[in-house]
Amino acid sequence: MYIVMIASECAPAAKVGGLADVVFGLSRELELRGHAVEIILPKYDCMRQDQVWGLHVSDHELWVPWDGGAIRCTVWFGFVHGRKCFFIEPHCAQAFFDRGTYYGFWDDPERFAFFSKAALEFLSKSNKRPDVIHTHDWQTALVPVLLYELHARAGLADQRVCHTIHNFRHQGVTGPGILRATGLDRPEYFGAPDRMGDAFDRHSINLMRGAILYANAVTTVSPHHAWEARHTDLGFGLGHALHLHQDKFVGILNGLDYEMWNPQTDPHIPQHYGATSLDRKAANTAALRERMLLRNGRRPILAYVGRLDTQKGLHLIRHAMFYALEQDAQFVLLGSGSEHGINEDFWHLKRRLNDNPDCHLEIGYDEDLAHLIYAGADLLVMPSLYEPCGLTQMIALRYGTVPVVRAVGGLKDTVFDWDYSALPPQQRNGFVFEHADHQGLESALDRALGLWRNEPALFHELILQGMACDYSWNHPGQRYLDLYEFIRHK
Predict the structure, then answer these.
(1) What pTM did the predictor assign?
(2) What is the model's pLDDT at position 455?
(3) From residue 154, how far is each of 42, 122, 129, 213, 454 by CA, in Å?
């Protein structure tokens, strides 16, 4: 099968978040299974060109119709750690992708609508005819709309589209001028409530809604989050559209890169270990204590690694910190927030706890330290208010660090409570709580810390059960292939 990914990110060349890891990881898994995969990306001026091998011009003269005229683009080709990637570079006064960063501009909808148009023009002009086009999030949500409304008549009539929604919170809501610029026109048609009209602003176009309507298959990044998006406010206004198109909507759990995240080969940690050599993990715990200036002694280390964002349950992260200290445990945190006030709050906490020998907060991101925390901590807390998939809990399981999570999204699909899960005892791998309050969090932490202190043999067994879980791209890769085959012959 020939698959083309059209996306705004691909790790490690152009990465902001988990989307980049998914595009890279899924593409590699599909290639390992013998399929041809190509990725189309914008050519950002800030992308990591040192992560692209053999970058060279593939096409000097890709003309993309735009807003009554046309914009010339250069198309580049290179390998991103073995993945075949095309990069589209528009030459225009707006400098769409020459801005020093990836997102955050008032005209982001226009920038990525142009990229979506350009990607299809490139496929058409270069005579590339993939079996499946896989698009991602709002940035490329216009691709299926443009494909079936315009480009099907220009030689792309047989292509099928799978669209993955990684984050329902960002939907590409914009004015109807996008329709004129792309050549779709007819704002009264596309802006109708049953088409691309936004649920909250009847004067706006919702790009994500367009993808739900036009794509042949729509996925999100975990089965439980698919249910949440349809039946709770976590669909952020798209629940009705998903209900209308429920026959083509499914949740497929993201995978984890098991080559990058492997305690047996990880270059970022001082001592390698595995399920059969778990005693060696203690050397990483000692290194973590030394790095974080924590005192030695027989105390469990509870950790948080990730963004400091409201979504992550900041009030519960704070509570976990102080509760751990009250329970004679240690707490380490590595993370930063995009909002100034959140960072300031955690800097204040850091200064307040600076002399505490059982706590260390690191505000920012450090790749080496992240790996060391996963390898050295005993428990990892994820009290998210919502979590479409989550990779942190999967990494923790891989490294023999027991996750304590809230039962939302992908956390509910990957972590199964030691005491209360409906799964057989030998398939349980962590601790889970339901309600986003102090009592819920404390109940899970009490049970986790109690097992660590009072039943070390059982805690060891729990670690091994977590390490035995397979959250690689193996299973989701097959799920996507099955879905591609289904829509190809639909």
Answers:
(1) 0.94
(2) 98
(3) 23, 12, 12, 21, 69
Q: Are 327 and 445 in contact (CB under 8 A)?
A: yes
Cβ–Cβ under 8 Å, residues 397 and 469: yes
- The pLDDT assigned to 202 comes to 87
> What pLDDT was estimated at residue 117?
98
CATH number given to 2-255+474-488:
3.40.50.2000
Domain with CATH 3.40.50.2000 in the chain: 2-255+474-488, 275-467
Residue 155 has a pLDDT of: 87
395: its two tokens: 């990494």
Evaluate whether 3 touches 130 at the Cβ level (below 8 Å).
Answer: yes
Low-confidence ranges of the chain (pLDDT < 70): none
pLDDT of residue 316: 98
CATH of 275-467, one of 3.40.50.720, 3.10.290.10, 3.40.50.2300, 3.40.50.2000: 3.40.50.2000
